[in-house]
Design goal:
The complex is a heterodimer.
Chain A (H helix, E strand, L loop, with lengths): L9 E12 L3 E12 L3 E5 L6 H9 L7 E10 L2 E2 L5 H7 L1 E4 L11 H7 L8 H14 L1 H5 L10 H13 L5 E5 L7 H17 L3 E6 L2 H7 L2 E6 L2 E7 H6 L1 H7 L10 H10 L5
Parallel strand pairs in A: 3-8, 3-9, 6-7, 7-8
Antiparallel strand pairs in A: 1-2, 1-4, 4-5, 9-10
Helix pairs in contact in A: 3-6
Chain B lengths: L1 H31 L6 H17 L4 H24 L7 H23 L16 H7 L5 H23 L1 H11 L1 H6 L4 H27 L8 H12 L4 H26 L7 H12 L14
Helix pairs in contact in B: 1-6, 1-7, 1-9, 1-10, 1-11, 2-3, 2-4, 2-9, 3-9, 6-7, 6-9, 7-9, 10-11, 10-12
Classes of the chains: A alpha/beta, B mainly alpha.
């Protein structure tokens, strides 16, 4: 399958943004990226590279953490969105699933899903139909619908969080670290559902992940962040076969698997500086 | 035995009055995690504004409507001018802000309406219901029964609102996790505006009932302190808890005063509730119906 064809028009584009926390800590030093309509784009990088900050800059959740986009622009469907409130953005069709799931713990699974439709004033029948649509993708949630979500498993909470975002009927979902703390089998299941949603509901995804291997398997395109800068980007297949990516993020190299100590040593000598 | 029931019923009914004040606390605490110290001042403000308006010659319905408008406007202003500025600050900061607000509201209210105590007549006499007195020989105050009815209706309405409506669910969502609520597009300001408006309304109802029973005076602000043991007993997040807590505190207070009081020389009604609350804190700090903190390990 060739994904190298000319990219479709970007639905979301981030142009050279700079983010500063608390007026002093410079976290993003000029990040640019694009998400083409109907694609899954992966945003990769180590801890503290700026993945979550990039997503929060787009969804305008930074203010709550005393962060501020000081330079650059963010456009969604050709319109500047960096001064909008999260509420306005959700109405436009951009919804974020936060890192660590953030379910409403004292609400039942179904109530969690219903809160996702807060911005849409729709009839009970429509609400019901949308719930069924979410349950169709996440049959497990239907079984647990009356449980308090704080008592459901990590995988179920991740599903609840994604399902809740779906209830807002977004065209683009910003998905932050969906694999965090989950068993490999559950991670596969969740990525499978993401691919399904992408194919059947035409939802575009911008996916921040530390698990480079699995993210590149499901994504069409990838960006690699390091120290608040994009150091590399390309089609997912190409990135997965790139020698540097293999070495830095997959722990593989031409000389076979290296010991962790050697990798560290090597990284100290050779760094990506854009 | 008849005497026991008379004391018990009297206690339960006066407990409902505590519940009414506690409800206002619960609303705001549930949605924003803020212990709103100013709730007592709001009760005072509502009662005094209502009485002031009737003195100016407004009819009952008209005065009620205007007071409601004043309370809701006050609530919205509080949200806009104080809380919105303090969003994402530590809880203690918000708590201190509500203490400041308390004195401001008290001062402003007295500045406008004067500080002399006044009476408030709702037209429901604080007299025993003769029907019950004849059949069972128990004194049940007409007024207190009316107050209990009002409380019951309010609780039912609030419970429905929280469980079944879009705004109610949004409110509980915000209470659980501000950021997640924002991420799916729930506007915090809107939710807080609703909550403070609702708390203003609850304060109005409590203010009218308390004012009618004890007179409208500065001491009304201390009803807030009476609501504290009720909250500790019932749980800060629970609407039914505020009611059950109120009933227990009311009943125990009166029973203790009548049966235990004479043994120790009387006058224990004023503090026995706090002793119960203290004991409760030791055994079950989240209260009877409060939300348990869910921790995954």
């Amino acid at each position: 399958m060739s994904t190298a064809a000319a990219p479709a028009a970007p639905i979301l584009s981030v142009n050279n943004i700079e983010v500063i926390y608390d007026h002093v800590i410079l976290v993003l030093k000029g990040v640019s990226l694009e998400v083409a309509e109907g694609r899954i784009v992966a945003l990769l990088g180590a801890n503290g590279a700026g993945k979550s900050t990039t997503l929060k800059a787009i969804s305008n959740l930074l203010a709550a953490e005393r962060g501020d986009v000081t330079k650059g622009t963010i456009e969604f469907k050709g319109r500047r969105v960096d001064k909008l409130t999260p509420n306005q953005l959700v109405r436009m069709g951009v919804c974020q699933v936060m890192e660590g799931r953030h379910c409403f713990q004292h609400l039942t699974v179904e109530e969690n899903l219903l809160t996702g439709a807060f911005t849409r004033r729709i009839s009970r029948a429509e609400l019901r139909a949308d719930l069924e649509r979410v349950y169709h993708y996440f049959p497990r949630l239907k079984q647990r619908r009356t449980s308090q979500s704080g008592y459901t498993s990590g995988g179920e909470q991740q599903m609840t969080a994604i399902g809740r975002a779906l209830m807002a009927k977004p065209t683009t979902i910003l998905l932050d670290e969906p694999s965090m703390g989950l068993a490999p089998q559950i991670v596969e299941e969740i990525f499978g559902i993401v691919r399904d949603l992408n194919a059947k509901e035409r939802v575009s995804f911008l996916l921040a992940e530390q698990n480079t291997m699995i993210a590149l398997r499901y994504a069409n395109y990838g960006y690699i962040l390091e120290n608040g800068r994009v150091v590399m980007d390309g089609d997912a297949g190409e990135l997965a076969n790139n020698e540097d990516v293999k070495e830095f993020y997959l722990g593989l190299s031409t000389a076979g698997r290296k010991s962790f100590r050697d990798v560290k040593h090597y990284r100290r000598r050779k760094r990506w500086l854009a | 035995m008849t005497f026991f029931f008379e004391v018990l019923i009297g206690g339960l009914l006066s407990g409902v009055m505590y519940s009414l004040v506690a409800l206002g606390f619960v609303l705001i605490y549930k949605a924003s995690g803020v212990f709103n110290f100013a709730q007592g001042a709001l009760v005072f403000m509502a009662a005094l504004t209502f009485v002031g308006l009737t003195e100016m010659g407004l009819g009952f319905a008209m005065a009620l409507a205007v007071t409601l408008v004043v309370m809701i406007a006050g609530a919205l202003l509080t949200e806009r001018l104080v809380l919105r500025k303090l969003v994402n600050q530590p809880q203690i900061t918000l708590f201190m802000a509500t203490i400041g607000l308390t004195f401001f509201i008290e001062g402003l209210t007295q500045l406008v309406w004067g500080s002399q105590p006044r009476g408030l007549d709702l037209g429901i006499p604080d007299q025993p219901i003769e029907w019950v007195l004849d059949r069972a020989g128990i004194v049940v105050s007409q007024f207190e029964l009316f107050a209990a009815g009002v409380a019951a209706v309010m609780v039912a309405a609030l419970a429905l609102f929280f469980q079944k409506t879009r705004i109610g669910r949004g409110l509980r969502a915000v209470a659980d996790d501000h950021q997640a609520a924002q991420s799916i597009g729930i506007p915090l300001h809107l939710i807080w505006a609703y909550v403070w408006a609702a708390a203003g309304f609850v304060a109005l109802v409590a203010g009218l009932l308390w004012g009618a029973r004890n007179g409208v005076q500065f001491a009304l602000t201390f009803t807030a302190l009476k609501a504290l043991p009720v909250l500790i007993l019932g749980g800060f997040e629970s609407v039914p808890g505020a009611i059950i807590g109120g009933l227990i505190i009311g009943a125990v207070e009166k029973l203790a005063e009548v049966y235990v009081g004479p043994m120790v020389g009387g006058g224990i009604e004023g503090w026995v509730a706090y002793v119960i609350a203290l004991l409760f804190l030791l055994v079950r700090p989240e209260g009877l119906f409060g939300e348990k903190h869910i921790d995954r390990v």
